[in-house]
Design brief:
Layout (H helix, E strand, L loop, with lengths): L9 E6 L3 E5 L5 E3 L21 H5 L17 E5 L5 E5 L6 E3 L3 H5 L5 H7 L4
Antiparallel strand pairs: 1-2, 2-3, 3-6, 4-5, 5-6
């Protein structure tokens, strides 16, 4: 599988309820499906997000990101208040892409409820 932002190779870093692949270059994380129901399974696994926040932020401006699973353009999920959250979610298959550093940030107590609200229910 190729990274939807860097177009480089990805390695599987988690293969449980949802499979997570990480780009070898940009360290972004691709979830084959991420829903509100699957989110609790990621608590305690923040170490899979090994990229730096600065590297991840350098990819924030990419708007047209194709889903590697179904080739559809992924939607930008965005929340500005009370915290800023922005990530890509495929409207067809619920695949999700988080830039480096975003998983660690969004699973923190400050962000997790707002992050969860942006994910599909099932």
């Amino acid at each position: 599988m190729q990274c939807p932002k860097w177009y480089g190779d990805m390695d599987t870093v988690l293969d449980e309820e949802t499979t997570v692949d990480r780009c070898q270059n940009c360290h972004g994380l691709y979830f084959d499906q991420l829903t509100q129901e699957l989110l609790p399974g990621l608590y305690g696994k923040e170490a899979i997000d090994s990229g730096s926040d600065e590297l991840g932020a350098s990819y924030d401006d990419m708007v047209y990101v194709e889903c590697p699973k179904c080739d559809k353009i992924m939607d930008q999920r965005l929340l500005e208040e009370p915290v800023r959250i922005r990530f890509e979610l495929c409207p067809t298959c619920n695949a999700t892409f988080l830039d480096a550093g975003e998983l660690r940030e969004y699973l923190s107590s400050e962000f997790v409820e707002e992050f969860k609200s942006l994910l599909p229910e099932n």
